[in-house]
Amino acid sequence: MDIRPYAIAISDAELADLQSRLERTRWPAALGDDWERGTPVPYAQRLAEYWRTRYDWRAEEARLNRLPQVLAEVDGQPIHGLHVRSEEEAAVPLLLIHGYPSSFVEFAGIAPKLAERPGVTSGVGPAPAFHVVAPSIPGFGFSTPLTSHGWDIARTARAFDELMQALGYDRYAVFGEDVGAGISEQLCLDAGDRVLGSIAATDPGSIATQYTPPTDHLTDDEREHHERLKDARAEDFGYLALQTTRPLSVAYGLTDSPIAQATWIAEKFQEWTDPDRALPEEAVDLDALLTLITVSWFGRAGDGAANMLYEAAHAQVAWGRSHDRPQGIAAFGHEPLMRRILDPDGHLAFWSEHRHGGHFPAMEAPDELVGDLRAYFARLLAV
Fold this sequence. Notes:
Elements lengths: L1 E4 L6 H12 L17 H13 L3 H9 L3 E6 L2 E8 L7 E6 L13 H5 L14 E6 L17 H14 L5 E6 L1 H12 L4 E8 L17 H14 L4 H6 L3 H10 L1 H15 L7 H4 L2 H13 L2 H14 L12 E6 L4 H6 L7 E5 L6 H4 L1 H17 L1
Parallel strand pairs: 4-5, 4-6, 6-7, 7-8, 8-9
Antiparallel strand pairs: 1-2, 2-3, 3-5
């Protein structure tokens, strides 16, 4: 496999083009400040002004480039990501897999922390340091452009398994969130003993989708509450209906307009982060959010992300398969039904709950997520 070191180097011309497009944005009518119909125009205008006049891409580019990165070609597809090796001899290889609409950027803050010597024990054995690999899913971040159709969850899992082995990691741990949790599950099925164990992040929105596990065991009151959660989430699925049926229809706008890309992502940060935070920048650092958006813009990832959701929705699914890999969950956001639905029998190897946080825990609650990863894999290694 062709794997080489990588450094981000956006040209001055690309930066100037971004500035020009921001200055020439054609705005919809500003009819209010609420988020019910999407990112409100006044908020979008403030975000664009900050992005254009105060956000410093060069400083963010330099920050990202302080983290070791690789670019590989797997099955004909460019795959870019972080590869932060620990100085600890006994460090555990750890594959971090983001969800929608994220990228490797989400893990830039926690990767160095995970690679450090912990300095504390978990109570069941020494907490491990990690060799961190955080690739962007094909079509996301700088794992672009997509070179073919067919990059669904199963093909992505195979590519990530090949990448880990090519980097020298015959056995490794896995963390995933959202669609990344699906890729983690696929790795447990297909890579078998090469996966030490997996842990998924979840939030209240995860139990209000069409993919929720069986709920026959819930009480009548719990079932009514679950239906209210699903009803509240129903109007949030417009993005999914469009991208799983006509991804190109949205890809043109996301590829051609930085404001379309920014508001598309910002709306999900408003909707899916901690509900106690009214605005995206109250849940995550604004510059970090804009870095994720800017990487998506320069990587032209709106197109690839839309197509990945289409592929996942139309892929053949092998229902009924099982595996013996240990699994854990780190739950963010207070919702008692999460464990009642996702781990009703307490069979998971690890469960941790945090009152705050949401869909993007590496950005919203980094210390809590790092603690969970150390505690879970320390427990597995102690067995």
